[in-house]
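Please review the protein record below. Let me know how this chain folds according to its tokens.
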Amino acid sequence: MNVKLISYTPNALELLLYTKNTRLQGELTLEDISAKPEEWKLDQLAYMKDTIKSSWEFVDYTFEINDVSRAFTHQFVRTRNGSYAQESHRSGDLSEHEWVTPEGYDDEITGEYEIAMISSFGAYKELIDGGMQRQDARGVIPTNVKTNIIAKFNLRTLHQMAEVRLCTRTQGEYQTVFRNMRGAVAAVHPWAWDFLQVFCANHGTCCFPRYTECPIQRLTYNVNPSHEHFKSEIKLASNDITHVANPVAKNGSTM
């Protein structure tokens, strides 16, 4: 596989801070914020991580992802708040396409897998040669056929994806792709690394507590069944307690 960041918001950090400042009726212009020292910007950014994430939607990243399986992209495009352009398997000729071979199996099972793939692609070519249209013959092509896709996400969506797709419960190829995506983002915006963390790293609790095979789960707060009463207490309190906050903007921040 190959993951490449082909476009991104260049002044992302300054734009994040400016949109946040504007929402709170701040007086700083984008130029004012751009002129601030890096230490000031990062301090403001640390505050932003714990607030409403609407400003994160102004920062975009576009990725070119090649030589991944169609099985992966079927999962990938389930993220609704994204834009996608994918290689067509309806009109293109798949006769010479390669496929993704799963790792971690012995030679015997891997050999059987390869034979099955060769057979499927052979059947596809025979159907084409026999006069079947490509859009119909593609029905015999396995989901692990290699494909290419371009995808664009804003920072808020990437943050939400990271919480789930960096989890060990996620299919292996997806984990690898997203780790490469995160690395590409961090290469141009090092500060974004902390925005792209798995759920348990952000919240201390497990996103999928029923998945007990996770080697990290033992470090989360909710691994111990005795902690279950906390959730019950929270549910009761949230039903019984009414509280209305009164946020007051001051110096571009609110409590």
About this structure: The two ends are 44 Å apart (CA to CA).
